[in-house]
Amino acid sequence: MDRLSGLDASFLYLETPEQLMHVCGLIVLDPETVPGGYTFSAMRDLLDSRVKKVDQFTRKVRRVPLDVGHPVWVRDDHFDINHHFHRMALPQPAGYAELMEICGHLAGQPMNRSRPLWEMVLIEGYHDADGVEKLVVFSKMHHATVDGASGSNLISYLCSLEPDAPPLAPDDPPKASRAPGGLELLGRGVVETLMRPLGIPKLVPASIGMIAQSIDRARQGTAMAAPLTAPRTSFNGTINGHRTIAIADMKLEDIKEVRRATGATVNDIVLSIAGGALRSYLEERGELPNEPLLASVPVSVREDSSRDVGANKVSSLFARLGTDIDDPLERLRQMTEDNRNAKEHNKAISADMLQDWAEFAAPRVFGLAVRAYAGLRLAEKHPVVHNLVISNVPGPPVPLYFLGAQVLGMYPLGPVFHGAGLNITVLSNNGVVHVGIIACEESVRTPQTMVEHFPRELERLKAEVAVSGAEQP
What is the CA radius of gyration of the chain? Predict the structure, then answer.
């Protein structure tokens, strides 16, 4: 039995039918590489054998009586792969548009909390731009179980480096743990609740020091961008439960070429490209604000954290995306300078600060607060905290095989929130940079017109770099 950390549990408390807290993924596979040929039953049986070796796939959430403490993870003794791996076929003829439509529908469906919090749907009948049929796996994992880095690692546990090679998952199944009784859970919850205030004397001085340091950095002009300073756009309001999805690809070598010429990091370049793509999208709609858009960028603190529990070990920094700058190279220069300050500012903040404060999350209070916030449409009445979430997740540099089928594309898709109905996630995979966009349907009805600007902006940036020569930002 493992207790959820306060941060992990917060994603359960914040979830509503409109604000779903699962992380999605769209994986495109080549069925021709499957040893012996593809069949759904064989792939299901192989998946069943592999997930049983990884604890995160076979544990479920159990609430503490009266919600006096955070929930705990317990092993699902009645685990059935048929509850988690499903099959469906697209109506023919089916291409990109049909695939995006069904994936958007699946992303808007909540998961059953009485079972382990993950699902996969194997979609057959998808034909790519060349008319070749591919398999697509659409996955969902609750944010209480994974963050960006751990979610990528979980998928890798189901993969191998060759079609018929052993998986990357552990060889031995997880050890069965004792299931606690209701009275034991209640007692532990009461003790944890009573002990929790004892941590406040340590947290408050550290938080005050962090605020003072941030004010000092702001005076010196070296602080990261501040929340609540974002301009309002069409994707900043109250969201509903419907989702739209779009994907695109860029060449990793093109990004590396820009990096070598400018000295910028891959993350700087990705954020700069995102800024240019959003600028073009909003300009086409006549909605481009004068002030630059503000993105919340999740940052993994897994290596710096002193806590050994919890699936989510993340912090966040805020980055201006330079949407007020037309020239792509000038935008990259500005992004590089801003990101340098933001990274230094973020490193000065305790890696465990967010996790420590999240321990005080109360399930009933959080739930009521989210519902009141949505019902009163408060996201449309106060200053915009941030416009969107952008994540950059490093992926495998070599080909991977998911249950024997070669992975041709991996597109992570994060959750969207009231006030920020757009999420962009970028993942590198075997020389290709995959871009996944997910949004509230009312916020972004045609995300395809947005994602198409990503490869175009990369081409613009490459052209500007070639004209200006190798210049260090």
Answer: 23
| 143 part of the active site | yes
* Cβ count within 10 A of residue 69: 23
The model's pTM is 0.91
pLDDT at 265: 95
For every residue of the chain, which 3-state class applies, written as one string?
CEECCHHHHHHHHCCCCCCCCEEEEEEEEEHHHCCCCCCHHHHHHHHHHHHCCCHHHHEEEECCHHHCCCCEEEECCCCCHHHCEEEEECCCCCCHHHHHHHHHHHHCCCCCCCCCCEEEEEEEEEECCCCCEEEEEEEEEECCCCCHHHHHHHHHHCEECCCCCCCCCCCCCCCCCCCCCHHHHHHHHHHHHHHHHHHHHHHHHHHHHHHHHHHHHHHHCCCCCCCCCECCCCCCCCCCCCEEEEEEEEEHHHHHHHHHHHCCCHHHHHHHHHHHHHHHHHHHCCCCCCCCCEEEEEEECCCCCCCCCCCCCEEEEEEECCCCCCCHHHHHHHHHHHHHHHHHHHHCCCCCHHHHHHCCCCHHHHHHHHHHHHHCCHHHCCCECCCEEEEEECCCCCCCEECCEEEEEEEEECCCECCECEEEEEEEECCEEEEEEEEECCCCCCCHHHHCHHHHHHHHHHHHHHHHCCCCC
Q: List, in sequence order, every residue forming a beta bridge with 104; answer none if it has no partner.
A: none
Q: What is the pLDDT of residues 196-242, one digit of tens each?
A: 666 666 766 766 777 777 777 777 878 899 999 999 999 999 999 99
Q: 207: which 2 tokens?
A: 């938080």
Asked if the model's pLDDT at residue 452 lies above 90, the reply is yes
Tell me the pLDDT of the chain averaged across its residues: 89
Give just the sign of the alpha carbon dihedral 377, 382, 385, 387. Answer: positive
Q: Is 404 left (phi over 0), alpha (psi -120 to 50) or beta?
A: left
Task: Given the residues 70, 84, 142, 143, select the one marked as catalytic.
Answer: 143
Out of 25-34, 48-57, 200-209, 269-278, pick the least confident. Answer: 200-209
Q: What is the pLDDT of residues 267-293, one digit of tens each?
A: 999 999 999 999 999 999 999 999 999
Q: Which residues contact 449 (CB under 8 A, 6 or more apart)?
A: 281, 284
Degrees, nearest 5: CA angle 405-390-139:
30
